[in-house]
What does this fold into?
Amino acid sequence: MKIYLNGKLVPEKDAKVSVFDHGLLYGDGVFEGIRSYNGRVFMLEEHVERLFRSAKAIDLKIPLTREGVAKAVVRTCLANRVMNGYIRLIVTRGVGSLGLNPYNCAKPQVIVIAGTIQLYPKKLYDEGLSIVTVGTIRNHTESINPQIKSLNYLNNVLAKIEAINSGCLEAVMLNPQGFVAEATGDNIFVVRGNTLVTPPAWCGTLEGITRNVVMKLAAESGMTVREDVLTRYELYTADEVFLTGTAAEVIPVVTIDRRSIGIGKPGKATRKLAAAFHRFASSSGTPIK
Ligand code: PXG
It folds into this structure.
């Protein structure tokens, strides 16, 4: 595998970063997870735009233009023949000294890894996922704002640990006010009748790119789509619940906190939206050439 590292494609064994990189020392950096489908990078511009917003929010200057970053992604996919895969785009604060001060770091490092991702087992897309509300709350918006896709994912890792130790693969995270925020690496949606609801960004939710695509597809299919505050009451009483994310795509949720959601099986609206998402994803994107 060839890794993009600061402008060069280097063999995997040579793709190394310093132990003084603040990305490693402090989780100081930003990233994106992107997919390619059928030889095209899905929603590349949107991912690059979010990367730049995350970087701006942590006062990190990416040493490339948006076009330069997009080209680096395509180049890495091409070099590795990743036509249906997963791309990890990372910008770290760079090599600095021991001590928090980010302004002592010489130059941000840009890394692109193009490989594959292990989704949830196929069976769960047909049968649905069981999730659990966990005690670890999503970051306060004045802490690391959840809109920032930073390299510091410990908050989500702690929630994932709780979920796995409770026998579930994914967690529902609430925000400091007790409202539903999102899952550890996915956004959450509720279906009630013909209405689709997901929490707004100010609830401590990452504005997911898959989320935004699904909202658009739902509106086009005639559903009423709203961003609104959700509590566990709305989850427990929903007709359907599903999660969205780059890695997960659209996955139905059938139990939350061991309670059955709706009919306890993946619902019609979820299945329809998952199919619409796959159609859209396999027919759009930036060509890898
Ligand atoms: N919330 C959080 C906290 C995320 O990290 C999403 C929602 C969904 O956003 P997108 O833009 O992907 O629809 C994410 C994305 C992984 C992995 O390795 C995680 C994400 C994306 C890709 C891979 O677990 N999280």
